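so im writing up the methods section and need the Ion transport 2 domain-containing protein record in one place, dumping it here so i stop losing it
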Amino acid sequence: MEELCAENALLEPQGRYFVRRQDIHTEEHRQEGNWSRWLRARVSRAVVLYGESPFRVLSVAGAVIVGSALLYPLGLLRNSTTGQLMTYPTPTEPVALVTTLADSLYFSTLTFTTMTFGLYSPVGAGKFLTMLETGAGIVLMALLVFVFGRRATR
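--- predicted struct ---
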């Protein structure tokens, strides 16, 4: 059916049949006990839907950025000008909380896109988190280009 849809330029059904075929292969890997191929296929399905969904890549990228932004105010960033650690304010300071989260989201977005650190610099475990986020950013942007290229060539 997948080939028939491709021959008749029915791109959406072709994509659905492709995903079904890949799901069958994934299940075969599980049944055969080939756990490394099964795990790679499961991650591919979750992150890019086997190269069919740019929205999944964007969703994972957004989750990485927001998740990291929520971790940074745990004392993982230092303000370069004042030397103070970024921490969550007390619950009685809603404006400070919004400012802290906005700064953390800003830093996280810059780190993900590997642009620069800006006003803050990572300290302690923040260096490791920054390294992971930068690596995830590079990989997810490459996957996004791959998915768009794959869809454009169909």
